[in-house]
Design goal:
CATH superfamily of the largest domain: NAD(P)-binding Rossmann-like Domain
Helix content: 40-55%
Radius of gyration: 20 Å
Strand content: 5-15%
CATH topology of the largest domain: Rossmann fold
CATH architecture of the largest domain: 3-Layer(aba) Sandwich
Number of strands: 9
CATH class of the largest domain: Alpha Beta
Order of helices and strands: EHEHEHEHEHEEHEHHEHHHHHH
Largest sheet: 6 strands, parallel
Length: about 290
């Protein structure tokens, strides 16, 4: 019987990733607590719960909001009767500690846990161009290359130990959050000098200050006033604080991280439910002074 796959969590990132897996012809059973029927991709089988997915699939992908939810779902899979699943690939951003805990729980029952957070946003998830940062046994990662390339352009094996994928993801999102906040302050300064925003971006994007905010978010989401990257301020705030907490624990420098964390904490508190690009309005309107 061909290998069967499962997918739990069909939200803004999970739904498109599951859709790409199904579209490539991989046998897929899906479940989402919010209502699988309306979220399931075409061609996928519907599970009634996480245990259904664990019974149907050899490998289960997870895409859930945080470590608490991830550990809850892992426990549901572990406890399922007649479980078929023996590999969990967790695409969620949950932090190194939660990933290590999930791995320990899985090892105790003979399940291989792969820590595999993703980057690339909703657009990348839909286009199948996201990056996946996989940490776990290389042999297991290598055995899943076909399905990984079914929904990701850049799957990287970053280490043998779960938690290492999370480390790369949170440092990446810290850099992304820093670029967004710092670029906002830089652009606002340029505007105060009477320089057009497009001119600022045109110059910066062929110069040394170019970054993901100036190259993508400002021209496509802020200059157009759509403010719609699809990545919530609350999620980036969570990721930046995960980085700060883990860097402190590791004893590495955190001066910049502390300042960036404050910016995102304040923005998230002031603009609940907002897109990350709304930090521009928050800082522009003087709330960040």
């Amino acid at each position: 019987m061909p290998e069967q796959f499962g997918f739990i969590g069909l939200g803004q990132m999970g739904g498109p990733m599951a859709g790409n897996i199904a579209a490539k012809g991989f046998p897929l059973t899906v479940y989402d607590k919010a209502g699988t029927q309306g979220l399931a991709p075409e061609g996928a089988q519907l599970g009634a719960n996480a245990a259904d997915v664990a019974r149907a699939a050899d490998t289960v992908f997870l895409s859930v909001p945080d470590g608490k939810v991830s550990l809850f779902v892992v426990d549901e899979i572990i406890a399922s009767e007649d479980r078929r699943a023996d590999v969990i690939i967790d695409l969620s951003t949950i932090g190194p500690d939660a990933a290590r805990e999930a791995d320990a729980r899985c090892k105790a029952v003979g399940i291989t846990y792969i820590d595999a957070p993703v980057s690339g946003g909703q657009a990348g998830a839909r286009a199948g161009t996201i990056t996946v940062m996989l940490a776990g046994p290389r042999a297991v990662v290598d055995a899943h290359q076909d399905v990984l390339h079914g929904f990701a352009k850049n799957p990287f094996h970053v280490g043998e130990e779960p938690g290492q994928g999370q480390a790369v993801k949170i440092l990446n999102n810290f850099l992304s959050g820093t670029a967004m906040a710092a670029s906002t302050e830089a652009v606002l300064y340029g505007l105060s000098q009477g320089i057009d925003m497009k001119t600022i971006l045109d110059v910066v994007n062929v110069s040394t200050g170019q970054n993901t905010a100036t190259a993508d978010k400002f021209p496509k989401r802020i200059l157009t006033e759509t403010f719609d990257t699809g990545f919530a301020t609350a999620l980036l705030t969570k990721d930046v604080n995960l980085f700060l907490d883990n860097a402190r624990e590791a004893g590495t420098p955190t001066k910049i991280a502390q300042a960036i964390s404050e910016v995102w904490d304040e923005t998230n508190e002031a603009l609940p439910g907002s897109d990350i690009t709304m930090v521009y309005k928050y800082l522009r309107d003087g709330a960040g002074e």
